[in-house]
Amino acid sequence: MPDLATKTITTENVKKEVANNIYFGPIYPNQVIGGLTVPRFRTSINEKSLSRIALASAHKARKPSVILKDFLYLSGAKVGANGDLLAKNKITHIINISPCRNFFESKIPISLLQKYPNWKSPKYLRLYVKDRPEENIEKFFNVSNKFIYDAKRDGGRVLVHCWAGVSRSASLILAYLMNQYGCTYNRALNYVKKKRSIVEPNCGFCLQLSKYELELMRTLGIPIDGISGTKRKYDEVEFVDIINVNVGSVVEEGERNVFDWGTKGIFDPSTYRYNKMRKLI
């Protein structure tokens, strides 16, 4: 006869497992971005119904927020479902971290092709986490950074969208700006808020971004709370946030990237080395 206590514990474990996964659908197929495998995730169980809602309201969508001119855009799902806005802004790459499907991955409606004959189906990176503080969005930073970096290298334009364009998609864009331009989390957040005032990552995502900032700083050898980094090479270090540099400003050495991206195009604190700090003349 089975132990009643064991049976009770097993039942409770099952209930917890069901509760934890009640908002998740099937596991998304494997994706490889520039040699990086996308961490495992499940899609939303409401993907179909929410996709229909986004499509039905897509005509009400306003243009996406321009984070970096002619390159990086931020929005909610309605923009991701609006082919006219995507084509007008010449979007070539989309990071979809919403609970909706990839709207234009397989084909483009004939009506859109007639209006925009040169526009092609965007390249997608599909991700998903619930917009809850306990969710792990940091696990996607490397693959999303790589995806955006590769799009820029190829002369593309990237839209990052979640459901509302407030928390999840904003967090991925903040991680990219911190990584690519050496911004602190607060500086990147203030900059993005100027472009899209409703941006507000949830408290859990804020903590993960702050942790990510520390990882970047330690790799650069910048002292953190009196503890020197392991790779410090300079007596003085000055951050220059290229996204805040005025047009016409001169940048020493002509450097466009803070980090030496090597051949993979992403910054991994355990692998990549610091290239050159820049300062304005």
Automatic annotation (TrEMBL):
- Enzyme Commission number(s) of this protein: 3.1.3.48
Top enzyme class: hydrolase
Biological process, per Gene Ontology: negative regulation of MAPK cascade
Domain Tyrosine-protein phosphatase intervals? 63-218
Please report which protein family the annotation says this sequence is part of: Belongs to the protein-tyrosine phosphatase family. Non-receptor class dual specificity subfamily.
Whether Amino-acid biosynthesis counts among this entry's keywords is: no
| Superkingdom field | Eukaryota
One Pfam family name is: DSPc
> Where in the numbering of this chain does the Tyrosine specific protein phosphatases domain appear?
138-196
A GO molecular-function descriptor:
MAP kinase tyrosine/serine/threonine phosphatase activity
Q: Which Gene3D superfamilies match?
A: Protein tyrosine phosphatase superfamily
Mind telling me which CDD domains this protein's record contains? DSP
Q: What is this protein called?
A: protein-tyrosine-phosphatase
This protein's UniProt keywords:
Hydrolase, Protein phosphatase
In the UniProt record, which is one GO cellular component term? cytoplasm
Organism, as annotated: Rhizophagus irregularis (strain DAOM 181602 / DAOM 197198 / MUCL 43194)
